[in-house]
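Note to self: the last two entries modelled the partners one at a time, which told us nothing about the interface. This time every component goes in together.
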Amino acid sequence: MNSVCSISAPKGRPREFDIDVALGKALLVFWRNGYEAASMTELTSAMGITKPSLYAAFGNKEALFNKALDLYEREKLAYMTSALDAPSARGVAERLLRGALEMQMSTCDPKGCLGVISAATCGAEAETIKAAVVKRRASSEAALIRRFEEAQAAGELPEGMTPAALTRFLFAILQGLALQGGSGATCTELSELVATSMAVWPTK
Amino acid sequence: MNSVCSISAPKGRPREFDIDVALGKALLVFWRNGYEAASMTELTSAMGITKPSLYAAFGNKEALFNKALDLYEREKLAYMTSALDAPSARGVAERLLRGALEMQMSTCDPKGCLGVISAATCGAEAETIKAAVVKRRASSEAALIRRFEEAQAAGELPEGMTPAALTRFLFAILQGLALQGGSGATCTELSELVATSMAVWPTK
DNA sequence: ATGCCTATATACCGCTCGGTATGAATAGCG
DNA sequence: CGCTATTCATACCGAGCGGTATATAGGCAT
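The predicted structure of the combined assembly is written out below.
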């Protein structure tokens, strides 16, 4: 009886595809096209499965997107949380900018930022999608604000510059970086943008 | 014979709607929804005309969008060219930021920037749309770069900071401003973003 | 071997999309 | 008046959309 140690006993016919691999393929399609423009036909063909399999495994298109968004945050946005460990506010900003730059310069992944693309893509149908993305961004923002509050307590911030304002300023640059990256900017242009941002970053 | 002074003698049945008013309505729909998500049904209903009238007057959806984009640049982005008249690079930046902020805070117009929305919305179908928007942005960028070259010649820029890099930095902030404005940021948050940007703007 | 349960594949659903054929209405011109 | 030219309104087109009904294939326990 070795069935005890195994994860479970899947009773019916076993699934013929790897659900995580398929989700990764779906992520790439959403990333390239945005939520609305990614059709089920393109998704299923990229994932190598048929529509009923997709619906059985993921629910529907919106649920699939949310799971892809989870994967995106977990794998591609890991640098955002790890950046908070930097010893100074300036170090946090630099890590965030360099992390975002590295992502845009990666040749294997699509350009642009899935979050930025999805938030800007605002068909009336996709209102709930937009809300989900904005909500996720808000939690990242909150974490960054908390980190900058520590920095402020440590006396790192110039007077009259609130942690929240600095956070939104940095986010604006990151969003601009992703947008320009998705619009055909070259790697040198983007790294110049990062360099300029670091050059003007406030020092008390 | 007073037909000489008139523009022309339109022979057939006269058009029953004002083509410029209709274009303005179409612009609002594109602005709110982006190119792809703006359906012909919503467009015609907002414009108060039927589909055949729309096609006869504007060609097709893409041509309508381009004409709406013309109108948008002419009316809503006028501050971008007038900002170049500011006496210093810093003044140019301030005028651009304040102009963008004013647009986001206007209560009558949709939030966000039509250009930003349309460039980020990149279904494979809308590739040509995206290219048109990016091309227009490039010409604005070029104008700003030229203005900052003058500033550099006047000794306004810090060493090692090229006009092109400063332009893309400023554009990134403007894009971030539009994106946050389109994602539900409040007016005070956006004006804080502008204030922070001006606070860190390089002074030689 | 026989049910049982699940995944697969095909074919299909209603709906909306951008775009158009068609015929009636309305003007100028002879 | 008739003729021509243009716009208007209705109704329609093929195609693609997200999503599903149905039937078959394939592992498990009994």
